Amino acid sequence: MRPDEIIAKAVARGLKIACAESVTGGAVSSALISVPGSSDAVAGGVVAYTIAAKERVLGVDGGLIERHGVVSEEVAIAMARCVRELFGADVGVATTGVAGPASHGGKPAGTVCVASVGPRGEHAVTVFHEGDREAVRSAAVADALSALDIAL
After folding, report:
1. pLDDT digits over 32-62, tens only?
2. Can you say whether the dihedral through the CA atoms of 1, 142, 52, 71 is positive or negative?
3. First-last CA distance in the chain
4. Is 118 in contact with 91 (CB distance < 8 Å)?
5. I need a surface site. Which of 16, 22, 48, 114 has the fewest CB within 10 A?
């Protein structure tokens, strides 16, 4: 789904979106706010690239990260829940993953976990993308937009 379609859907439903990003480094937020009128739908976003940022800024439980690993559906859901609460938004979306070129935390490069939390419940998915660092990150943005579509 395209960013303009996500914004239109959120505006039509009167919903606010918040983004918690790791592997995408702010690219999801950037894609959304590139749409004219996005201020009617986007509450805010956080790039929580380190574990410490996920814990301190977003409020993700360190024990959860320790049990499941930073690249996991459980942590992605927690990030989406936390950013939603942080910004008082209706929908939270989160990305965490390994862009590469090396593996991280036992997960191979290309592994991405995306989650959304909103009025339609919680949704998480782990996907694997082939390609270089930029290809993985770009695909993760598309995954996040799909997750938003599900949540809205």
Report:
1. 999 999 999 999 999 999 999 999 999 999 9
2. positive
3. 12
4. yes
5. 16
Answer yes or no: are the C-beta atoms of 50 and 22 closer than 8 Å.
Answer: no
Domains defined for the chain, CATH in brackets: 3-151 (3.90.950.20)
Three-state SS sequence of the chain: CCHHHHHHHHHHHCCCEEEEECCCCCHHHHHHHCCCCHHHCEEEEEECCCHHHHHHHHCCCHHHHHHHCCCCHHHHHHHHHHHHHHHCCCEEEEEEECCCCCCECCECCCEEEEEEEECCEEEEEEEECCCCHHHHHHHHHHHHHHHHHHHC
Mean pLDDT, to the nearest integer, of 16-21? 98
Sign of CA dihedral 18, 36, 142, 99: negative
pLDDT beyond 90 at 26: yes
